[in-house]
Design goal:
The complex is a heterodimer of chains A (301) and B (436).
Chain A (H helix, E strand, L loop, with lengths): L13 H4 L4 H30 L18 H7 L2 H32 L6 H13 L2 H11 L6 H6 L13 H26 L3 H9 L4 H29 L3 H6 L8 H11 L3 H31 L1
Helix pairs in contact in A: 4-8, 4-10, 5-8, 8-10, 10-13, 12-13
Chain B lengths: L1 H21 L3 E7 L2 H17 L2 E7 L1 H13 L7 E5 L3 H6 L7 H6 L2 H4 L2 H7 L12 E13 H5 L1 H11 L9 H11 L7 E4 L8 H12 L19 H14 L11 H9 L3 E7 L3 H5 L10 E4 L11 E10 L6 H11 L2 H10 L6 H5 L1 H4 L5 H8 L2 E2 L7 H16 L6 H18 L5
Parallel strand pairs in B: 1-2, 1-3, 5-6, 8-9
Antiparallel strand pairs in B: 3-8, 4-6, 4-7, 4-8
Helix pairs in contact in B: 2-16, 11-12, 20-21
Classes of the chains: A mainly alpha (301), B alpha/beta (436).
């Protein structure tokens, strides 16, 4: 039997000063974390994988029957599910695209010294600190065609945002952009502040145009941070539920997470919904992997 | 170590079992968060005074009601002893083993006759015409209409209406008149609109409005006994009814694409619409001047008949069932015995509950108690409901998916929507072995 040699504690650390051994630390911190992870994360994950191959319904007492890949076949041949995926893809592209442009744009504006810069930055971060449900509810009021401030400010009369099937998804995406652009802005600011000043000075000496400076210096150096923001926002937007659920009932805003919720907790098609959850998981992992590969390539450059 | 663990487990189970018996003098009823639940709490306080058994009415918002109740049932939890569940839950509640069979209790107290037959059929019996009962009709409800009496009675409006449509403006006597009146009052420039409808597609809002129109046009959702849907769900009557609902939708206030009881009451309280569809359970708020500035000018009417004279209203309301996993079933039966007493049902009605007790419902006292009780009484004689099979939620989703884009978005035709729906439902019933 091989024993794993544990790294020795740094003798100057507080844990060492209190007389904690490596073993105590393992028992107190690491084992509970692993147990927690297994019980509440890995076990349900595997259990639901098992359910995804059955016709189990949590609402009836009948036992689960093994149906092989039937659930996956049924889902992948269901035009409604494909419509939900299309809606989700559209939502992800519009909302994440918007957030990247707005967030990075604001970060470029903030990346200079001016009075009350700190206060401005903090105020701009407020939307992302709010609860999704609250944001959804008050944007619903802002969009109201009769007395909402958006139509009033834009002079659009009684323009219907959320009841209009063609407009509803964009209306929800605009809300998401408002809420999450600050997140992109924050990461972009971190990236921008790390760009060495001497590069800009060198570009200025060479009389490089501002477009040239932006595309050849700023963008490549901020790109890794932007990609991280992109990964996080894409994953989140793909799983979006709250905003579309609260703001609109249009089939054109029924993203895949809403369909999953209805399938699992209104219709109680437990086996089928587990299969759908796994399809979603695979899609998210695939998209993230593509991004990470790209991120590594950008970093290497 | 093992001995220690066993000892601890034994201790915990002893504590739990003694805990359960300590709570035997308390019952918990689960219902949605709305006024009738508050009235029920007031009512059951009297039971506590009489018997010493405390009854607590626990509530949750409507949007969460179905999910929370079934999550508890599915986990075989004993948090609730009784549940005031939706009529559509009967199939899932009975076939899933979540509800206690009340057939003997029904027979013993002759409840099939004591309560209005339509309510027994809808809130208690499953499968249809089986003679098996699972709930006590508790809160009867039907979809009716509120309207602005002052607008309808305005002499100038009356004259203009007479000139335009050739008959007198009044409470609509059929769906054509309902449509005409909605069109007449639809004046977006003045901030006035014709009609408020249910359009919320997240659960059963839109479906209740559409099915009511279908029943009124002489149509059916399907054969509730044989599960045949082709030719029934997409019958010409149903197509005509759906076209009418779509037409009525043109006369709703702006942004009326996801509306249910709350918005439809607001349509009256905010002076937006001439007529508003809603369940009677929400009308007390309209009759109260504190919540409706137009309370004195608000009238109520029964859903009008359709072109063939068919006259129906969509059923709302709930029945009270004993949860199979309750630790206090005996106590729950005693409570139900108290609840079905005529004097208790009278008190229930006086507090604002919509009793289904035939004698109380038919009494002059009840029918004259509020401006809408008479319309409620009339409606309860003509109620019809959605499918009550365990897979009803799937059927709801399929109907929402097919019908909503046509009604609200104007996509496709009514015929296409209903043909698609018949195919979806047929496929679902085949999957559950109800159709060959």
């Amino acid at each position: 039997m091989t024993t794993i040699a544990l790294e020795r504690l740094d003798p100057s650390s507080r844990a060492a000063a209190r007389g904690w051994s490596d073993l105590t630390i393992r028992n107190v911190f690491i084992i509970p974390t692993i147990v927690f992870l297994i019980v509440f994360n890995i076990f349900p994950l595997l259990y639901s994988l098992g359910y995804s191959f059955t016709d189990f319904r949590a609402s009836v007492s009948a036992p689960a029957n093994f149906v092989g890949l039937d659930n996956y076949k049924r889902l992948l041949s269901d035009p409604n599910i494909w419509r939900n995926f299309t809606v989700t893809a559209k939502y992800v592209i519009v909302s994440v695209g918007g957030q990247m442009i707005v967030g990075f744009g604001i970060a470029l504006l903030l990346n200079r010294a001016f009075p009350f810069k700190g206060l401005f930055t903090t105020l701009l971060l407020l939307p992302m600190m709010m609860s999704m449900a609250v944001v959804g509810l008050f944007w619903k009021l802002l969009y109201d065609p009769s007395w909402g401030i958006i139509n009033y400010a834009l002079g659009l009369g009684r323009f219907d945002w959320l009841s209009n099937p063609d407009m509803a998804l964009y209306a929800v995406a605009i809300t998401d952009i408002w809420m999450w652009s600050p997140f992109v802005m924050l990461l972009s600011l971190a990236g921008l502040s790390a760009v060495p000043k001497h590069l800009y000075e060198a570009a200025a000496i060479d009389r490089a145009s501002s477009w040239y400076t932006f595309t050849r210096i700023t963008l490549p150096l901020v790109a890794p941070m932007l990609l991280i923001a992109l990964i996080f926002r894409t994953m989140e937007a793909f799983k979006s539920f709250d905003l579309p659920f609260i703001m609109s009932g249009q089939p054109t805003t029924e993203v895949i997470a809403i369909r999953l919720y209805k399938m699992a907790f209104q219709e109680w098609q437990t086996g089928l919904s587990c299969a759908l959850a796994y399809i979603m998981l695979i899609v998210v992992i695939a998209i993230t992997n593509i991004y990470i590969k790209y991120l590594n390539r950008v970093k290497e450059r | 170590m093992r001995m220690k663990m066993t000892g601890m487990l034994a201790g915990i189970s002893l504590a739990l079992s003694s805990g359960t018996s300590a709570f035997a003098q308390e019952l918990t009823i689960f219902w949605a968060e709305w006024d009738p639940a508050n009235y029920l709490q007031e009512l059951v306080n009297e039971y506590a005074a009489e018997t010493g058994v405390t009854v607590r009415v626990e509530t949750t918002p409507w949007a969460d009601f179905q999910t929370k109740a079934f999550a508890e049932f599915n986990a075989h939890g004993d948090a609730y002893d009784l549940v005031v569940g939706d009529s559509q839950w009967l199939g899932a509640g009975s076939e899933g083993g979540h509800y206690v069979d009340l057939t003997e209790f029904f027979e013993e107290h002759n409840l099939a006759e004591v309560f209005v037959p339509a309510t027994v059929e809808s809130y208690a019996e499953y499968p249809k015409a089986s003679g098996k009962y699972w709930a006590i009709p508790t809160e009867g409800d039907a979809n009716g209409w509120a309207y602005r009496k002052d607008w309808f009675e305005d002499p100038e409006e009356k004259a203009a209406f007479q000139e335009k449509y050739g008959y007198e403006l009044g409470v609509p006597e059929n769906y054509q008149q309902l449509r005409d009146i909605a069109e007449f009052f639809h004046r977006p420039d003045e901030g006035r609109y014709g009609i408020a409808l249910y359009t919320d597609n997240s659960y059963d809002g839109l479906i209740m409005g559409v099915e009511q129109t279908i029943f009124t046009y002489g149509g059916e959702l399907g054969d509730y006994e044989t599960f045949q849907v082709q030719g029934i769900t997409n019958s010409p009557e149903n197509v005509q009814a759906l076209e009418m609902y779509r037409e009525l939708y043109q006369f709703t206030p702006p942004n009326w694409g996801k509306t249910f009881f709350l918005e439809n009451n607001q349509a009256i309280t905010e002076g937006l619409a001439a007529m508003s569809m809603n369940y009677f359970a929400f009308f007390p708020a309209l009759a109260n001047p504190a919540t409706n500035p137009h309370a004195d000018a608000t009238g109520y009417f029964v859903n009008p008949p359709g072109p063939t004279g068919a006259h129906h209203a969509a059923l709302g309301g709930q029945g009270m069932s004993i949860v199979s996993y309750s630790q206090n079933k005996e106590e729950a039966f005693k409570f139900l015995e108290w609840f079905i007493r005529e004097d208790v049902q009278q008190k229930w009605a006086a507090l604002g509950g919509y009793t289904c007790h035939a004698a109380v419902l038919e009494s002059e006292e009840f029918r004259n108690a509020t401006p809408f009780n008479e319309a409620f009484f009339q409606s309860m004689q003509i109620v019809k409901d959605f499918w009550a099979v365990p897979e009803y939620a799937e059927l709801l989703t399929q109907m929402n998916t097919r019908v909503y884009p046509y009604v609200v978005g104007g996509e496709g035709t009514a015929e296409e929507a209903l043909d698609g729906l018949a195919t979806d439902w047929e496929e679902t019933f085949k999957r559950y072995g109800r159709l060959d």
